[in-house]
Design brief:
The protein has 8 helices and 4 strands. With 203 residues, it is mainly alpha-helical. The strands form 2 sheets. The chain has a two-stranded antiparallel ribbon. Strands 3-4 form a two-stranded parallel sheet. The longest helix is centred in the C-terminal third of the chain and has 15 residues.
């Protein structure tokens, strides 16, 4: 999608959603913790790290990098922010400044990309939505290897028409989205992560 169009739409959406942003920040401050903005390092285009913004939806605590080991940090208000995707509103500012696009690979921290082939997905900016994000909406779960496969598929197929189709599918899919399965017992991701996490703790 042309940069001028993305920046213009992002600016318009920022203005339109400003009351929701302020309300979400207030809810996060009162019921989840201060500061209400959660900042993290994510991998951008060409592997360049950038600071990612989201509204805080989890209470402070030990971060493992895998949400299925952090469920106790997520209360009702956090679940509501995530269900309505209000925690993602600050990403509009990243689109406005050119760090992200409306459509692209899911923005991820470097530690979740270790031992995976990420060269293709890193040739474009991370996206607010994309095929991997759509899969998560429809199925409620997504393992790392499938995510990389879907991200690479997007990079190879992307054009303006395809971007518009992904955005339309996202907007129509959000109301009927499945709850994210935060405890995928037996999944390869969980088994491998638990093994590696236990080994680090025993060292």
């Amino acid at each position: 999608m042309p940069r001028f169009i993305e920046a213009s739409v992002a600016f318009l959406l920022i203005l339109l959603t400003l009351p929701l942003q302020l309300l979400s920040l207030l809810v996060s401050t009162l019921f989840i913790g201060f500061p209400p903005l959660y900042l993290s390092k994510r991998v951008g285009k060409n592997g360049t790290p950038y600071t990612h913004y989201k509204i805080r939806s989890m209470k402070k605590g030990k971060e493992t990098g895998r949400v299925f080991f952090e469920q106790k940090r997520l209360n009702y208000c956090g679940k509501l922010l995530r269900k309505l995707h209000l925690d993602e509103l600050p990403e509009l500012y990243l689109i406005l400044t050119g760090k992200m696009s409306f459509v692209g690979p899911r923005p991820l921290p470097q530690k979740l990309l270790e031992n995976l082939s990420t060269e293709i997905r890193q040739t474009v900016k991370p996206g607010w939505t994309g095929p991997a994000q759509l899969w998560l909406l429809k199925h409620g779960s997504l393992n790392k290897r499938l995510q990389i496969k879907l991200d690479n598929h997007y990079v190879n197929k992307r054009n303006l028409l395809y971007d518009l189709r992904v955005i339309t599918a996202t907007l129509t899919g959000v109301p009927g989205a499945k709850p994210v399965n935060m405890d995928p017992k037996g999944s390869p991701d969980r088994v491998i992560f638990r093994k590696n996490n236990n080994e680090r703790q025993n060292q």
